[in-house]
């Protein structure tokens, strides 16, 4: 083992930061509160991503990633969530942000494989593999959770 090795969770704790503010004009938003709304949410993302110019195979990836995070919101918070979608011209990316009232207590959820016996934790691994960047700041107790998905347009 390297003398410079540090526990990944300690590194994540030390690098905690807030997300940059979204643009003043948020773009398009949808509130969702039921699993029956997931199809409409995917179609909403599909339409916006296609109009933004995201390649077709990436549109499917983004829809799947949004579906997974929205499902987590509904299954783990038993409350509604908000999906916001906008383009970031600085990074030439389409951003989908899902916010809810839940709390993530492990900063590495979705970045390290869950234990074999765990029945949860694979969805966020999938989300991380589908998107160009996934931001999930955690640690602000009572502030809810925000998951920001980035997909480069070109």
What would you say about this model in short?
It is built from 4 helices and 5 strands.
3D structure, described in words:
There is one protein chain. The chain has 154 residues and is α+β, with helices and mostly antiparallel strands. It contains 4 helices and 5 strands; from the N terminus they run αβααββαββ. It has helices spanning 8-14, 38-52, 56-77, 122-130, and strands at 28-32, 81-88, 93-100, 133-135, 145-152. It has a 5-stranded antiparallel sheet, with helices on one face. A hairpin with a 4-residue loop joins strand 2 (81-88) and strand 3 (93-100). The model has no long low-confidence stretch (mean pLDDT 82).
Topology:
Elements: H1 8-14, E1 28-32, H2 38-52, H3 56-77, E2 81-88, E3 93-100, H4 122-130, E4 133-135, E5 145-152
Antiparallel strand pairs: 1-2, 2-3, 3-5, 4-5
Q: Indicate the low-confidence ranges by residue numbers.
A: none
Gap between N and C termini: 40 Å
Principal-axis shape equals globular
* Strand-pairing-aware structural class: alpha+beta
Instruction: Tell me the fraction of residues in β-strands, as a range.
Output: 15-25%
Along the chain, the helix and strand elements come as HEHHEEHEE
Tally of separate helices: 4
Mean pLDDT: 82
What is the percent of helical residues? 25-40%
| Record field, number of beta strands | 5
**Rg over alpha carbons:** 16 Å
Largest sheet: 5 strands, antiparallel
**Strand order, biggest sheet?**
1-2-3-5-4
């Amino acid at each position: 083992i390297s003398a410079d090795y540090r526990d990944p969770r300690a590194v994540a704790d030390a690098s905690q930061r807030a997300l940059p503010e979204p643009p003043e004009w948020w773009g398009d938003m949808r509130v969702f509160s039921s699993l029956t709304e997931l199809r409409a949410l995917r179609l909403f993302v599909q339409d916006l991503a296609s109009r933004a110019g995201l390649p077709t195979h990436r549109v499917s990836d983004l829809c799947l990633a949004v579906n997974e995070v929205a499902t987590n919101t509904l299954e783990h918070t038993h409350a509604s969530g908000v999906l916001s979608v906008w383009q970031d011209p600085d990074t030439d990316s389409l951003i989908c942000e899902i916010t809810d009232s839940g709390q993530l207590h492990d900063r590495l959820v979705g970045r390290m494989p869950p234990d074999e016996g765990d029945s949860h934790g694979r969805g966020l691994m999938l989300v991380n593999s589908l998107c160009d960047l996934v931001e999930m700041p955690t640690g602000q107790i009572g502030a809810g959770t925000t998951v920001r998905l980035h997909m480069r347009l070109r």
